[in-house]
Design goal:
Chain lengths: 510, 238, 332
């Protein structure tokens, strides 16, 4: 019965997510599945793009790793504040971030400063994506048993212990960060488009939006998809499934050091990135909105408020669906030794959002499928497709840290699997579930590429509205809308964090 | 034989006072067992000696040299000549048995690392595990590797924090016999923490009974058995 | 269970089978088109469900959606900011012909002979300039002048692969021929033209003083003037026998096999009215095509502008070839 259910649900997931892509692929093969698009220009372009994104991934992972290390290993005053603030760049749309930074560059150095420079792209993308590395590596570091580090400290100095013991143990998380950021950077087009830098993704986008050459755009997307798939599969095989993952029992503390001599360097480093990644770009936005000839707060609020309500509701349900499916996928992979749902989510993760949008329209836009296509459900399916893998990985990592014996002990006592999950597993997994939920919520609210293809007519969503209004509105109005949107998301993150704290505390007492 | 002296130690862990004006001198005997219920401060005591924690007040001296004083770590852990075997053994999961043992030897730039590692594994009878990883070992084998890893560095003091918690009785007996032999061979001072008084009586030449951060009784096995302290009596069920 | 129940409610709420509605996809800026559509909704009691577009360089948007939905259209009426998109949709069999009652009011150049699209309220291509950075006397009078050395590093155009800029370049190529067109583009490059992401970005850069001037549309220029009195705009190539300025009417197309074709027609007739043209003239200086529409003083009039003499269909057919050459120009 359980096995049948497992296969049935996997089948449903496959149909909902994978079938649209498979159908599109079959159509592509049927129409003109040749590889004639693989010319020198294409290969050169994808080569360059991979190179840029690799550098970005390297830089962002390095920054994220250092921030994660400092925040988990040392007594830092206002640690929660730093952690929260350094995560915030995830909330800012890449395009808005690029516009803010371009204004700053121009204000500082004139219009020719780093014009069309790859350095500008690397700088902006690194600042945008380092929080992802930070959160992944922080999670890994916080799960390393203190005794592993301490036993090394009995033998050698702390820096050597870090280099020889801690770094190898967090190698899977560093690898995952690198790969994820590489894929995100490679598939992000709005920043290179804005900076006028030709990348593979801007080329795909140009084929879609300028030439309406869906066939060629799909061919190019398949090439990018193949590369991303190879990358993710090798990451899964070599890194994440490595047998030496640390198991940490709840209650085992991580070692935290006090800062002595290096205090000013540590705070200097953290403050630098708070300044660069958040304070400066936000200040540019605030400056634009406050010091324009007119202030637009009321007008901006009127425009965006109804859309915000819809966006929050949609993001909430989207995050719930993502976490549920991510949990089921992670549980099957880690406990059930069944990886199909995880593989489906992995493949969907690397499909560009535009491609999924088109595939979903072809698949769901039928008289039978209209109840999905004409409703919020199409967007929820899209969000699960796009972000389900991230949630699945976060929760799977949480499962990895949970000795199976905890659940097995409960089951042997005759406790039903559902009750065991509620009373044992859920409590211990809640930090992972919570992190997955909040991240999914933020990603859903900020998603544009697929949303604009699929949102039901008549529904207003904040991200879409900001961009549609921005087409011809005073910049101050757009910036004010962005700030309101950002403020709302921050409010909800704070709300979830507060709620989560109460829930976890209650769970701990029980 | 090394001496370890703690003077007027006040130590808290997560706002709980674990040691309150604790003073004692270890080293009169080679093998000292510290026993007491959970939370009495046994582990904190070992960690303070190792330098893994710093007291709010007080001094720690090893062989008369001041190593910790009032929140100041004067001598870092890796320079104290101390070996520490943790409760969870802390074998590095990404390193093989060989690498776990050789790691310290590399750091100390010892010669003949290969020979040293193989000799220690031979001694414990686990040579065939040399290329295995910790997750591939049995509980007893892990225990042996943890001890071997520490002893190849020839520490002056060996601290063991409830190392037999997950070991079956037969293997435990063998390891305890090994320990006594090793102590005679290497000449280190052994501080062994356990909540099992039978283990303590088996290995300890001196027993220290703790409760809520204070010493309730200390002495040889015979002296402990004759103690008039009611807590000690009930703890060891006289 | 709660989650499943909520999702069921969401589906049911979204799936109301309301026949008294019309679905319109608009690539005209939401800030201008939405108030007009809402007014229609109030007056007609027909629920208007809108899908708006971003600037093309920010998302694939409405056009790709319309093409992808081709087999089972959700949209009843497509309202575009220029006829190029409608002509493309017509070539893919997505539009349905309609000979509107209002067609007689609209000049023949601004409608499709077969009725697949009809134009109203036009924009034009203009040169927006920052008065603090360039004096009126020093301004170019023709797009050809932009290749002269005194304008080196001084102006911007939007990405020529997208939107009305691509339309403009295609029109220039159509008027001059490909060779002269490429020479002009080469001249722009020699003059270090700044490539902005969109017309809105051109407007932004001129407002901020990053560049002295830029080619954009009348509605962007109008908004810019409202934001900051330091900017103004002019129509290029207005001399006798000159090239003229590109006129870009809004264009409406009914979608073939749409769910609510009758309501689509009603909305179309509503939009092709003097009232709507007057509103668009007021809000974004769009120039009425219907005679006798009251316009504010600041709105330019088609009667006083020399238009480019072009055929929209012809330009649309030239587009793919021109775009390839432009892409090559952009990349090198």
């Amino acid at each position: 019965m359980a096995r049948t259910l497992k296969y049935l649900l996997s089948g449903i997931l496959g149909v909902l997510l994978l079938a649209p892509i498979a159908l599109l692929l079959l159509q592509w093969i049927g129409d003109d599945g040749s590889l004639s698009f693989l010319n020198g220009k294409t290969l050169s372009l994808i080569g360059h793009s991979i190179a840029y994104s690799s550098i970005i991934a390297l830089v962002a992972t390095l920054i994220g790793a250092v921030c994660a290390f400092l925040l988990t290993q040392f007594h830092i005053r206002f640690k929660s504040f730093y952690t929260f603030v350094l995560l915030l760049p995830i909330l800012i749309s890449p395009y808005i971030f690029a516009v803010a930074w371009k204004d700053i560059f121009i204000a500082v150095g004139g219009e020719k400063v780093m014009d069309k420079s790859i350095l500008e792209l690397i700088f902006i993308h690194s600042l945008l994506f380092f929080p992802l590395a930070m959160v992944i590596i922080m999670s890994a570091l916080s799960r390393i048993s203190a005794s592993l580090e301490e036993s090394a400290c009995m033998i050698t100095s702390y820096p050597r212990a870090v280099f020889k013991i801690i770094l190898p143990l967090i190698q899977p998380s560093i690898g995952l960060s690198f790969v994820l950021i590489l894929i995100f950077s490679l598939s992000e087009f709005s920043v290179p488009a804005y900076l006028g830098i030709n990348t593979f993704t801007t080329e795909i986008f140009t084929q879609f939006s300028a030439f309406y050459n869906t066939k060629l755009a799909l061919s190019q997307s398949i090439l990018m998809l193949s590369f991303s798939l190879m990358l993710m599969l090798s990451e899964v095989k070599i890194l994440s499934d490595a047998p030496f993952f640390t198991v940490d029992m709840k209650g085992n503390r991580t070692r935290i050091h006090t800062l002595d001599k290096g205090k000013k360097w540590v705070y200097g480093f953290l403050n630098t990135f708070v300044f660069l990644a958040l304070f400066l770009p936000l200040s540019a936005l605030v400056y634009q909105s406050v010091f324009a000839q007119e202030t637009f707060f009321i007008r901006a609020f009127d425009l965006i408020a109804p859309a915000l309500v819809n966006s929050v509701i949609l993001a909430f349900f989207g995050a719930c669906a993502i976490v549920l499916i991510g949990l089921w996928s992670a549980w099957l992979k880690e406990r059930g030794r069944y990886s199909l749902p995880n593989t489906i989510l992995l493949v969907m993760f690397i499909v560009p959002s535009i491609v999924f949008g088109i595939a979903a329209i072809h698949f769901y836009n039928t008289p039978i499928g209209n109840f999905i296509y004409g409703s919020m459900l199409i967007l929820i399916i899209g969000y699960v497709a796009h972000f389900g893998f991230i949630a699945s990985r976060i929760i799977a990592n949480g499962y990895k840290q949970l000795p199976p014996s905890l659940e097995e002990a409960a089951l042997l006592m005759g406790i039903s699997p559902l009750k065991c999950f509620r009373k044992v597993t859920f409590a211990l997994l809640s930090p992972s579930l919570f992190a997955a939920f909040v991240l999914s919520f933020v990603l859903c609210i900020g998603e544009l590429g697929m949303t604009i293809m699929l949102y039901p007519a008549g529904m207003e969503l904040a991200g879409v509205k900001i961009y549609t209004i921005a087409a011809n509105a005073p910049q101050a109005l757009t910036d004010t809308m962005i700030l309101i949107n950002l403020g709302t998301v921050l409010f909800f993150i704070g709300f979830f964090a507060f709620g989560g704290k109460i829930l976890f505390k209650r769970g701990a007492h029980e | 034989m090394s001496s370890i002296t703690l003077e007027h130690i006040h130590h808290s862990y997560k706002n709980n006072l674990t040691l309150r004006d604790f003073s004692y001198s270890f080293g009169k005997q080679n093998r000292v067992c510290i026993i007491g219920p959970s939370g009495c401060g046994k582990t904190s005591l070992l960690r303070l000696i190792a330098g893994l924690e710093i007291p709010q007040e007080g001094k720690v001296l090893i062989d008369g040299a001041l190593v910790t004083e009032n929140k100041n770590l004067i001598v870092p852990p890796h320079k104290r000549g101390i070996g520490f075997i943790f409760q969870d053994l802390a074998l590095w999961p990404h390193m093989s048995v060989y690498e776990n043992i050789a790691f310290g030897l590399h750091e100390q730039e010892t010669n003949q690392i290969d020979q040293t590692v193989k000799r220690s594994l031979d001694f414990f009878g686990i040579s065939d595990a040399i290329h295995k990883y910790p997750h591939q070992l049995s509980g007893g084998q892990k225990q042996m590797v943890a001890i071997a890893r520490t002893l190849v560095l020839e520490p002056k003091v060996l601290l063991m924090d409830e190392p037999m918690a997950n070991i079956d009785v037969q293997v435990k007996e063998q390891i305890l016999i090994h320990l006594k032999t090793l102590q005679h061979l290497y000449g280190f001072t052994l501080l062994y923490v356990t909540h099992d008084h039978r283990e303590a009586f088996e290995i300890g030449e001196e027993i220290v009974v703790m409760r809520e951060g204070k010493i309730m009784a200390h002495g040889t096995k015979e002296e402990i058995l004759k103690t008039k302290d009611s807590f000690t009596q009930s703890f060891i069920k006289i | 269970m709660g989650l499943i129940g909520s999702i069921t409610l969401l589906i049911l709420a979204s799936c109301s089978n309301n026949t008294n509605e019309v679905v319109v996809y608009s690539s005209v800026d939401q800030i201008f088109s939405e108030p007009i559509l809402k007014e229609f909704e109030e007056k007609s009691s027909i629920t208007v469900k809108m899908v708006f577009d971003t600037e093309e360089t920010k998302s694939t948007g409405v056009m790709n959606r319309l093409i992808a939905e081709g087999r089972n259209p959700q949209c009843d009426l497509f309202w575009s900011g220029d006829p190029m998109r409608n002509i493309l949709l017509k070539s893919k069999g997505i539009t349905a012909p309609l000979h509107s009652i209002a067609a007689s009011k609209i000049p023949s150049f601004a409608q499709d002979k077969e009725g697949h699209w009809i134009g109203f309220s036009a924009r034009a291509r203009v040169l927006l300039y920052n008065k603090k950075l360039i004096a009126k006397e020093a301004l170019p009078q023709s797009i050809l002048d932009l290749t002269q050395p005194q304008y080196d590093h001084k102006f911007a155009i939007a990405n020529p692969l997208f939107g009305t800029t691509t339309f403009h370049i295609a029109a220039i190529f159509s008027a001059w021929g490909t060779e002269k067109g490429m020479q002009w583009l080469t001249g722009l490059k020699k003059n270090n033209v700044t490539i902005a992401t969109s017309n809105g970005d051109v407007k932004r850069r001129v407002l901020k003083g990053e560049v002295a001037m830029g080619l954009t549309d009348t509605d962007d220029a109008f908004e810019a003037k409202k934001e900051n009195s330091d900017v103004d705009y002019l129509f290029l190539d207005q001399e006798k026998n000159g090239l003229g300025s590109l006129i870009m009417p809004n264009a409406l197309s009914l979608i073939a096999h749409s769910p609510h074709p009758e309501n689509g027609k009603k909305l179309m007739e509503y939009l092709l009215s003097k009232e709507v043209e007057s509103q668009l003239a007021q809000s974004c200086a769009q120039m009425p095509l219907i005679k006798g529409v009251k316009t504010p003083k600041q709105t330019p009039s088609l009667e006083h502008i020399t238009p480019m003499k072009i055929e929209y269909e012809k330009i649309s057919h030239l587009l793919p070839t021109i775009q390839e050459r432009v892409q090559s120009w952009l990349e090198h």
